[in-house]
Amino acid sequence: MANFIISKIDLDENGVFFGSGGNDTIKPESQYTSTFYTIMGLKGNDWIEDGNQDGILFGMEGNDTIQGQEGDDLIYGNEGNDSLSRSPGADTIYGGQGDDKIYDDAAFVDRFNVLLGNLGNDTIGGLGFLYGGQGNDVIDGGDYGDELSGDRGQDVLGGNGGNDLFVLHPTANINEIPKGTENADLITDFINGEDQIALVGISYQDLNIYEITPREINDIFGDRAVDNNFYGVVKFLAIGYQGELLGVTGRDRSNFELREDDFITI
């Protein structure tokens, strides 16, 4: 294991610092440096931090932990099960392969972040645009309006506070994905009049919305439904399209309905 406290003189001519190929700890000489860093962890399970300047941080291979500070950063986990997090800043965090945990500080409404899970079963939390990609992901927004998209896999989407947009993708027209429930998303906290559901390439008139029982939800989502057991919810609605289940949501009142103005088409 190697420990690196880097300064400007440690960078190559392109402003890049490369790890040793083992399990490295890489930090800037000063948290308040004005130097722009690109840090490449290479192989091994690395711990990487940057200062308060904008930076590009790559974990590469291994199960890496990357922590950004202030500034607008690009953080890329790549291979392995990575833990990627950031403090204030307008950031892009990309998990890559593996089951990653991606978090960004959700307390700063004036900062828009892009958090991308990509492959694997990822856990994503923060403020901004949150995208799961492939795999069965858990995605939680912040206290303000977020855009949440699970994409492929059976995802659990929670907007938390604010006016959130939940994106549902019909996938039955993609040859390698059969119709059914393989890509259904579970929306845990939809509120009429505050949140909306975005439909990709289809409209409200194309949907089949029907009531679904808790047992059916458990059959589809298994432990993922149990972990989000909707205390107090008395009515669940399924959102279907041409034989494919796109999503499920519920509320704490028996007259809960999904209306046309709850949806937009993108």
TrEMBL record:
Keywords, alphabetical: Secreted
Gene Ontology MF terms in the entry: calcium ion binding
Location relative to the cell: Secreted
Domain of life: Bacteria
InterPro entries for this protein: Hemolysin-typ_Ca-bd_CS (IPR018511), Hemolysn_Ca-bd (IPR001343), RTX_toxin/Mannuronan_C5-epim (IPR050557), Serralysin-like_metalloprot_C (IPR011049)
Any GO CC annotation of this UniProt entry: extracellular region
Protein name per the record: Leukotoxin
The organism of origin for this protein: Planktothrix agardhii (Oscillatoria agardhii)
Lineage: Bacteria, Bacillati, Cyanobacteriota, Cyanophyceae, Oscillatoriophycideae
